[in-house]
Amino acid sequence: MSDTHVCTCNPSTQNPYLPISMVLQRVTDEVDDRTIKSFDLAFAREEDARCFKYTPGQFCEVSVFGEGEAPFGIASSPTEQGFVRFTVKKAGVVTTKLHNCKPGDVIGLRGPLGNSFPLDLMRGKDIVVIGGGFAFTTLRSLIIYLLESGERDRFGKITVIYGARDPGLLMYKEDLAAWEQRGDIEVCQTIDRGVPGWSRRVGFVPNVTEEVAPNAANAVAVICGPPIMIKFTLPVMTKLGFGKEQIYTSLENRMKCGIGKCGRCNVGHKYVCLDGPVFSMAELDQLPSEY
Amino acid sequence: MSALQTVRDTVAGWLRSGEIELFIGYEAGTVPLRATPTFIRNPEDVDRLIWDATCENNLAAFLPKYRGKKVGIMVKGCDSHAVIGLLQEGQVIRENLRIVGVHCPGVVDVRRVAAQLGVPVEQIDDARIEGEQVIVGEQTLALRDVLFEGCQTCTCHAPAIYDVTLGEPVVDAAEGDSFAHVREMEALSAEERWVRFAQELERCNLCFACRNACPMCYCNICFVDRSMPRWFNQTTQPEDKQFYQVMRTFHLAGRCVGCGACTRACPQGINIRLFLDKLRADVQELYGYEAGEDAEAKPPLTTYREDDYNDFIL
Amino acid sequence: MLSKKALTSTLYDLMDLYRVIAPCQRDGELRFDRVSSPREIVLDYGNTAKSPKGVFFPQNEAMIKFGRQVDQFNQIKQVPLDRTPTVLLGVRPCDARSFLLLDAVFAQGRYLDPYYQARRQNTLIVTMACASPRQTCFCHAFGSGPYDREGSDIFLRDAGDAYLVEGVSQKGRDLIYQGYLGRASQAYLDKAVEIEAQANARLADIEPVAGIEKLLPGLFDSPIWQEISEKCIACGTCTYACPTCHCFNIEDRVLANSGERVRAWDSCMYQFFTQHASGHNPRPDQAARWRQRTMHKFEYLPRNVGLFGCVGCGRCVQSCPVRLDIRGVLRRVRAAAEAAATAGANVEE
Amino acid sequence: MADTTNKEQWQPKILAFLCNWCSYAGADLAGTSRLQYPPNVRIIRLPCSGRVNPIFIVEALRQGADGVLVSGCHPGDCHYLAGNYYARRRFALLQRYLEYLGIEPGRVQFSWVSASEGGRFAEVVTKVTEDVRALGPSRHLNINAVATKK
Hints:
The complex is a heterotetramer of chains A (about 290), B (about 325), C (about 350) and D (about 150).
Chain A (H helix, E strand, L loop, with lengths): L19 E10 L6 E8 L2 H6 L7 E6 L3 E6 L10 E6 L3 H7 L6 E8 L5 H4 L3 E7 L4 H12 L9 E7 L8 H9 L4 E6 L9 E2 L2 H8 L6 E6 L2 H14 L6 E4 L15 E2 L2 E2 L6 E3 H5 L6
Parallel strand pairs in A: 7-8, 7-11, 8-9, 9-10, 11-12
Antiparallel strand pairs in A: 1-2, 1-6, 2-5, 3-4, 3-6, 12-15, 13-14
Chain C lengths: L1 E2 L3 H11 L1 E8 L2 E6 L25 E10 L2 E7 L7 E6 L1 H14 L7 H8 L1 E6 L25 E5 L3 E6 L2 H9 L7 H16 L10 H4 L8 H6 L7 H5 L6 E7 L3 E8 L20 H20 L9 H5 L6 H23 L1
Parallel strand pairs in C: 2-6, 6-7, 7-8
Antiparallel strand pairs in C: 1-9, 2-3, 4-5, 4-11, 8-9, 10-11
Chain D lengths: L1 H4 L8 E6 L3 H10 L8 E6 L7 H9 L4 E6 L10 H18 L7 E5 L5 H18 L7 H7 L1
Parallel strand pairs in D: 1-2, 1-3, 3-4
């Protein structure tokens, strides 16, 4: 095992705890209150870039050396070359330090880890993407992938419902604007309460979902958001005819190793880091509600 | 009727009348010479309650968890001082408590039993207490020789706060300074003291049993668990263990009642009271204060006198 | 056969070739540690307070070191793996079996743990049969026993003034062939059998654990967890004493000009073990943590890797500051499952 | 660390917690009066000596300070009336406790220095520096000392 070249694409021969070095390329404020930023990381070494193959829905352990590691879903899409993006809310020790990082800083990366959104299952079907607030990161990855992977025609209608408390808290504004210009994706942005200058939808995500009423026949839905949003959206989906096996979500539990060893992210006998983070509602039904 | 049975009946009465919803006492454990805490909600279960020299835990440590609830508790003399400490710091409300205060002759220390017999602790399989004797297999030891070290110089056998009492008053041991171990340590050179401290802590696992067994360690978030600022790494590097123990014990300055629960809880047998008792001795010497004596008193570090000890200042 | 008199010289030979780790008296406790002289070794003991899992999975170990350049830690290096040929001498059969569970976690599956593997692959396990099981022992509840060879490379049995030496694995047999052992006479064989019978006679009656993994799934929302955990003071003693508990934390430890990423034992008994940065905690109380501890050992691990996360060494029973007895927990689980089954049957009627 | 390995080049590092109103002003005065004192102190300004949590002192030793000085207003002069009185009790216990555990006397010291006592500040710093120099590099509780040993 060498000290210099490490990637996790062949985990059996490599040290899965050893991060690769990334260089922070760009930091973007995503929301008005500046608590959420996107970090675009570029590969320090060519071979790492070649090895690092991921699918929307996967996550990485991001290190700020000297502070620690934390898991974040990948917000960029594999179709976006040259960087890996993470959108991070300032909350704990590592995220606070990350928010203070400047372009050029070295950041550690382990991954990609975990499973991904069920792209195979999605092919040939309509896709409904429902997101709330900060939990839109891997959904962005998914949407960009659906649009840009060169196989747009292999997916049916794409409907995106994305809500936040107010316009300033909607992330990825440029992407949203660009998607709205396209004819091959329907984007419904919503805010909880109307404000002057806002011409799009107003209302909570569950209500908007009911209004938009995506067709459940031959569709797969992905829902990510605060637990309360998911709780109230699920009955709406059921009403619209979505079965539990048609609805997917992504779990977040506290993690350390990300590789199924350290024993804290499990929900029942399933490890969020290994068996997840993406689960169908049908799978979650079989598990205790420990998340 | 035995005194214990009277207490059981009293507890059952409290539970029946709704004076308390829960009684925290001791029941026989599965490990020899060590009783286990028990939580009784049903008056029919009071016969589980026991009292003898195996009841080593300080049950007052459970009280902050039941803040606001009506709870009964069994306390030894030293434990009762912890209850006073908790009252003093507003962690419990007297009206909510029903206290069985025990006149305690001291609790048995299995480690000393093992040491006397020259066997490892875990090899003591078949042992029981009969009167003033501890019977281990074929051998008999005098209970007073295998009491917890702190119990041998105890000056608080009698409960200081109670609603009913159990047992006969115990006469304080005439012999012995209760801080003799502190004086011994003080007599060593600085380097010898450090070696003593470091060697004790070498065994520390950082399991936090000492903190969690302590009735006065009730912080919602202990400094070792804080992330902002993060003071502590969960590693067992010697300095990390020393740092933890220095700060935890110092946080008990003027608050530690000297019950020894931390020391008995330590799975590694670290003599934590050797350190804590220095603080108790100094608080007594400098500020004439003993923790857990008076629920109305001001704890020594929350007050001052203009003529306080000042010689140490340049 | 190896006479006890010849043990010292054999150990000296062994120490020329291997790092020998055995129970030694250190800082006032019996602990598995590197042996510098055969005289330090204590083979006649009940069990160590801490299990030997630390030999392969130390309580804390630096995995990565980082150096500083300008004002940032950015020089990253893996800590070299420890491949020192090692003999782990004098573990008890319960602990030898615990390594099988640790192997399943660290050395099998999608990701392998190189730090664990390096040590494990280069270590030979010499187990000492357990001649005097304690009252906290319940290895036999798992179908094992004080003379179980599973997980050992070499197995030693007490035969009075000699040990009977038995190669269990190929690795173990290879080492024995390198050595010079006398053939045991019938008298020694008889003595060993006698000691074994005495050991087995000391075992208390206990219900087998097998089957409990089928009862647990139905008890997730049972009130027993609240009852069981009420006396728990949430220290991590049981998990640190346990030979199979393997949950860990990864933290960065920073010195003046360097730093390291340390893996340190952690415990599911701690409040902050699962708490999110947001403050949300999926296991918000001690009842949920006890459920996790029990289910992890007796349901999830059997389901995921086919082994119980418990070998019945009794250390947690012995070291618990409030004597919360895992055997009692298992009895409680059975009783609750039976009660639920009876209630269910009544409903069906 | 390089400076602790070489005995000749070694200079004690002393961390001083100074109260804003008296001792920090005293240090300022020492500076503006061009009084000479050893450059070994690193100063952290706090509103009051009463703000000094004992953990600051122990953490300083842990992070490699060879000595710690806490200085506040003279008794009776506290800007917040009694902060230094409370602090005095804590410090008395802490100093005796640390010494009890084997930290050499002199590593952790306390003083009262008023805003007008520039000269006294220089004297205090000189004394503490010389005391700590005599004791040599800090060995106990110091995470970096171990790193050097290894």
